Every structure is written in C-alpha cells, then in structure tokens.
Amino acid sequence: MGSWWRYFMGTEGKSGFGSMSTAEDVTEGLNLEDYTAIVTGATAGIGLETARVLAKRGARVIFAVRNVKLGETLKAEFMKESPHARILVMHMNLSDLASVRAFAAKFKDSRLPLNILVNNGGISSTTGPQSTPDGLELMFATNFLGHFLLTELLLDTMRETAKESGIQGRIVIVSGHLHNFTPKGGIAFDKLINQNEIWGFSGYGQSKLAGILHGRELAERLTAEGANITVNSLHPGAVQTKLTHLDGFLGFLISKIAFHTSSKPTVDAAATQVYVATHPQVHGVTGKYFADYNEYELRGLAMDKKLQLKLWKWTEEYLKTH
Ligand SMILES: NC(=O)c1ccc[n+]([C@@H]2O[C@H](COP(=O)([O-])OP(=O)(O)OC[C@H]3O[C@@H](n4cnc5c(N)ncnc54)[C@H](OP(=O)(O)O)[C@@H]3O)[C@@H](O)[C@H]2O)c1
C-alpha cells in the first residue's frame, strides 16, 4: 500500500489485534448465521468491505443504500465469492428523512429480526456549504440526523430480536478522530439551518462529534431501561476513499501526501467496525469509542454530558416537525 502504517503501526493492543488486522482476521472462526445486520453506505469504501465480511461469515446483510442498481451489482459480485451469502439491497437516502422513514417501514414490514446496525454511510464536503431542501447543513443531515432517525425507528425491532434470540444487539456508529475539529462549542446549533458558514472540516467534525454524543446518550438510555443492546462509536482509521477525495490541485496534493504517509487499506479500515459489531470481546461493552480494535479514551466535547443532552433534545424537537 506504500504507507508506513502497516510496517510501524502493526503492534497489537489489548484486544490482540493491531493496525495490520483485516476485517476477515477479526472475524476468523466466527459463525454469524444467526445474525441479521444492516449496513448503511454499503456501496463503497469501508461500508462495502464491512458488508462483504459480515455476509461472508454468514450474517444476513441488508445493504441500505441510495444507489440500488450499484448495490445489486455489488451483491452479484459477492454471491460469486460466497454463493450462500444472504444479501438484501434496499433503498435509503440518509439525507432525506422521508426516505429513512420509508426504509424503516419497509424493513419492519419484512418482519426480519435485527441484531446489528452499522451506521456507516457518510459524506464530507470540501467544496462549500451545502444543505438539504429543508435548509439543514448536509453533512449533519446525512452523517448524523439520518442515522439518529434510522436508529430510533429500528430500536423496537432490535429490542424484540435481542429478547427473542438472547443475542445481544449491537449498534455501531462510525465516527472518526476528526470529531475534534468542530465549530466553537462543538455543535453550532444556531448555524445548522439556513446558513453558509459551517462546511469543510469543521462541518464534518461537527457531524462526527454528533455521532459520538448520540452513541453515548443512547447507550446510557438503553442501559437504564435494561435493553440487551450495546452502542459504541469508533474511528475506522484513515483510508483513501471517495469521502477523502479533496477537490482541486491543492486538494489532490494534500490528500496524496497525507494519505500516502498515513492511510490504511480498506480491508484494515473496516476491521474496527466489524470487530465492534461482532467480536465476543466486545460483549457487554457500551457507550465507548474504539480505534484500531481497542477502546480509545474520549476527551473534551465528546465527553460533555450537557452538550450530549442538548443535542438529543434539539434532534427530538427537529424530528417532531420534519
Ligand atoms: N475514509 C476515511 O479516512 C475515514 C476516516 C474516519 C471516518 N470515516 C467514516 O467512515 C465512513 C465510511 O466512509 P468511507 O471512507 O468508506 O466513504 P465512501 O467510500 O465515500 O463511502 C461512503 C458511503 O456512504 C454512502 N452515502 C453517502 N451519502 C449517502 C446518503 N445520503 N444516503 C445513503 N448513503 C450515502 C455512499 O453511497 P454512494 O455510493 O451513493 O455515494 C457510500 O456507500 C463514513 O462515516 C466516514 O465519515 C472515514
């Protein structure tokens, strides 16, 4: 891969896995036949590898994607590798709340169980401010809000599945270390709607911080009600994908230099989320943040309970009216 990462950062953490471990390594010997998983953003990058490995290990995997045609093509390719794979491709556009609601309704109608939800799909915008038709900042809408709504709508199914199967449910939120690069105060509540100030790294960081705060609050709530479901967030690692593509010549140079020196291959980058979603070592662990298959200590705004509650309240209010 041409990066020093694999050669110098391959040391193992407590989990026994290191930066050189792939998603296949961390699921070696696991039989996921009793599991059903939803992976958002399964048409590219880290989500695609996550979905592939979960399916290869026997899980029924629902690709929740906005490009169904591409999803079906990828499914056909997977089936060549694993002819018994159980894959369903379903439409969902994370930045469109109506589409998320339609996906959840269709999924519930199918009466399928749900053990694992991987909130992976995401965008980064480097070209300038972008919004949904409702005026909501697009990265916040896609990376955070769409997933918040999806999770809320699927929770009952996850609760029931966990009860009936005895298998602990797992919600996995793909965040990233850029959650530290945010507007002042972490979430610029007054600039989320009809604004053109928040974009680029700070908008991306804001959406990723929101994912972590969502995960921590939900973990607390599910623990308090006694639900057999864990919620954890994570940093997959730096990997060159569509998402990290920077526009323009300068962007091209930055991404080439940054990613040549520090990025992982996608097979490694998918490993942390597959580990958190499936590995027996993570049983019962909730409300945590992982990087390189090991718990990673959060600091600052990511641990701010007041901000966590403020975001939850803001989100509930927004969803009541949209
Ligand atoms: N790459 C990194 O270095 C890195 C580092 C830290 C965290 N992450 C996180 O890892 C996750 C996966 O990123 P990646 O690098 O694999 O990116 P990617 O290759 O660009 O894949 C992103 C996936 O999300 C989907 N997606 C985007 N917008 C969507 C929408 N509105 N509705 C439904 N699906 C949508 C994309 O679908 P389309 O094919 O339709 O666009 C694609 O399948 C993201 O949450 C990202 O923030 C990545």
Automatic annotation (TrEMBL):
Signal peptide: none annotated. InterPro entries: NAD(P)-bd_dom_sf (IPR036291), SDR_fam (IPR002347), TIC32 (IPR055280). PANTHER family: SHORT-CHAIN DEHYDROGENASE TIC 32, CHLOROPLASTIC-LIKE. This is Uncharacterized protein.
